[in-house]
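Lab meeting tomorrow. Please check the following:
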Amino acid sequence: MLEYKVQQGVGKEYVVFLHGIGGTSNIFGKQLPVFNKNYNVVTIHLPGHGQSPSIQSYNEEFTIELIVKEVLKVLDHIKIERAHFVGISLGSVLIHAILQIAPNRVKSAVLGGCITRFTFFTKSLLLAGDTIKRFIPFMWLYKTFAYIMMPKNNHKISRMLFIREAKKMKRNDFLGWYSLTPIVRSTYECVQEKASHVPKLYISGKEDHLFVDSLKRDTKNDPSAKRVFIPDCGHVCNVEKPKIFNQLALDFLFQNQDVPLRKVQ
């Protein structure tokens, strides 16, 4: 089972935090104490992160469906039928996958630094990385992408945090996650159809230059989605602007407490 931690707070509602590739729950260090004052908080380390099983430990292909299954297995184990979800970067991509596969497990979703598709430039970078990934230390590749995604001085703290946490990964686990990047767009394709009843809040930095324009276009016709773009802020908005992120997310969760279960056709 994936490594997880439950911090009991006030009330009966649960909030599940999902980190991005190379990250751990440490990426939510400025959220957990604040959220725990009002909610029970669950942090989960995805496969290949923290003390969770390596991706090579599974007797089946490593896919986004497998990851969703493992996350839901944790919720089943601690007897959480439905929860609010908060994700950052690829953690938000995973929430999109959950919304397609098991939408009624999600009461509401806060998606930070969300990625709905890759631009031609980003695809070219990923393809170049795929070509050379077997011949260079994976941290070289990770650091390169971190600097491209978060290039400005005000992105430095989040950039360094992501790099520091990624150093704890094993090479094969990183490469396994890297191989999943082409499926990013497919994780969002049916979200508006299958999860139209689930309230969603997208929080991104206006300086999240690789992803923010696509996010605006892809989510503009989703009536259940709200979008906030924080000025002077990059990809990891919960780290760069924690007070703004926390206030936006907590207000949103409060509005969507006790959201009734709706049947999905």
